[in-house]
Specification:
It comes from Methyloversatilis universalis (strain ATCC BAA-1314 / DSM 25237 / JCM 13912 / CCUG 52030 / FAM5). The chain is mostly helical. The chain is 73% helix and 0% strand. The protein folds into two domains: 200 residues, Clc chloride channel (Orthogonal Bundle); 203 residues, Clc chloride channel, CATH 1.10.3080.10.
């Protein structure tokens, strides 16, 4: 037995103390890592729950509005203008920053300067406004979607949770925003692969390996919540897609040109409306935003009444009927939806353009089917036009073709979806710069306080 006063005993005692200290620090580090994981996992589950709640609230509001419009044809002429004015007033009064799509706001927040004068575009207050006012806007007949707003909702929740992460993990705030926004897209569309593509293609152009793990974890958890509560079926269900290689090649060529031009012009109009619109109407929107929203609501209501309600809401119902072959819409459905979505965007209401863009694309495919001799089996042409128009508007072709592929279980036409998305986005660039990043730069410039 060693003498406790001997050098070897003292050295052994020091070694044991040092080993115990290292072990305690290692346990503390593990606890910090697991605490960070729990915060991230809890946030991803929260994003999934918010996306599901937003979806159900919006669906109930739309169905209630459509039932009322069928019973009393004049109801939209009263409800839509009043609801539009009220939603804009509420947004500007209590939820500033919640207006618009939500994707440019998230991108702008990722580049925000460290300045005390910055007006936040991501917060828990904005989550409340985006969900409640966004559902009210869609449920009063405006042609808007909930998918883009869900990106801002998810990024806002993750932004709030970032402060609860242990500092030793060194997870940047921007990584949390990307994870939240991508989880929002995945849960809203029930398309996890599209969430990953969206994060890489739109929210950030260079993803580190560590951030990729964050994003994928958040997307998986949000997707699990969405599938648990909404079911595992695709967004539009399983669609029968038939056609030969020759039919597909012809459809891709025509669709890429038509959707590229139409989507590029649509994107250009949205950019002008957000950044550089001039004239008497633009002055009216700036000076009297509530009155302008009411006038936009009156126009949207008039379009809906004239078309028998085809232009109301996000367009999900009409798109699904077209894909399933259970409805035959008039040729003017796509132009009506195009105009109604543009007017709704001009109003300044919280709402996105993803779902309306898919509806416009389906309408274009419906109009092209007789010209290409594919009216008997238009499913392939419809999904190609949906991907092509969405890619042209967003100039995010990878996200577009993956979203549509997962929405309709369209793995059999994946090559066609890839081709039409890439070509349509290329054609769109001749008419418009990228929509979301252009609007984000404008928001960043407008929201940054001038130097003292």
């Amino acid at each position: 037995m060693l003498d406790p006063r001997s050098p070897m005993a003292r050295l052994r005692h020091v070694w044991l103390r040092l080993s115990s200290l290292i072990l305690r620090r290692r346990h503390y580090a593990y606890l910090k890592v697991w605490a960070g994981r729990l915060v991230l996992w809890g946030g991803a589950v929260g994003v999934g729950l918010l996306a599901v709640g937003f979806a159900r609230l919006s669906d109930h509001a739309v169905h209630f509005f459509r039932d009322g419009a069928k019973a009393w044809w004049w109801l939209p002429l009263v409800v839509t203008p009043l609801a539009g004015a009220g939603c804009v007033w509420i947004t500007r009064r209590w939820f500033a920053g919640a207006e618009g799509s939500g994707i440019p706001q998230t991108i702008a927040e990722m580049s925000r300067p460290e300045s005390p004068g910055w007006r936040p575009l991501l917060s828990l207050r904005i989550v409340v406004g985006k969900v409640l006012v966004g559902a009210a806007a869609v449920g009063s007949g405006f042609s808007l979607g909930r998918e883009g707003p869900t990106v801002q909702v998810g990024a806002s929740l993750m932004n709030a949770l970032h402060r609860w992460l242990p500092g030793g993990l060194h997870i940047p705030r921007t990584h949390m925003l990307v994870a939240g926004g991508a989880a929002g897209i995945a849960a809203a569309f029930n398309t996890p692969l599209a969430g990953i593509a969206f994060a890489i293609e739109e929210l950030t152009r260079s993803v580190e390996a560590r951030m990729s793990g964050l994003i994928i974890t958040a997307i998986v958890l949000a997707g699990i919540v969405s599938q648990t509560l909404l079911g595992k079926a695709s967004y539009f269900g399983q669609i029968a897609i038939a056609g030969s290689d020759r039919d597909m090649a012809l459809a891709v060529a025509v669709t890429a040109l038509v959707c590229g031009v139409a989507g590029g012009l649509f994107s250009r109009m949205l950019i002008i409306a957000s950044t550089s619109w001039r004239g008497s109407l633009a002055d009216l929107r700036r000076r009297r935003p509530v009155l302008f929203a009411a006038l936009c609501g009156l126009l949207v209501a008039a379009l809906g009444v004239v078309s028998g309600g085809l232009s109301f809401g996000s367009g999900y119902t009409e798109t699904r009927h077209l894909l399933e072959g259970t409805a035959q819409l008039d040729w003017h459905y796509a132009p009506l939806r195009f105009i109604a979505t543009l007017i709704a965007y001009l109003s300044g209401l919280p709402g996105g353009i993803f779902a309306p863009s898919l509806a416009i694309g389906a309408g274009i495919g419906h109009d092209l089917a007789p010209l290409l001799g594919q009216q008997a089996h238009p499913g392939m042409l419809l999904v190609l036009c949906m991907a092509g128009f969405l890619a042209a508007v967003t100039q995010a072709p990878i996200t577009a073709f993956i979203i549509v592929m997962e929405m309709v279980d369209g793995y059999s036409v994946i090559i066609g979806l890839m081709a039409v998305s890439l070509l349509s986005a290329g054609v769109s660039r001749l008419f418009s710069p990228p929509l979301y990043h252009t609007v984000a730069r404008h928001l960043l410039a407008r929201n940054t306080p001038p130097p003292c």
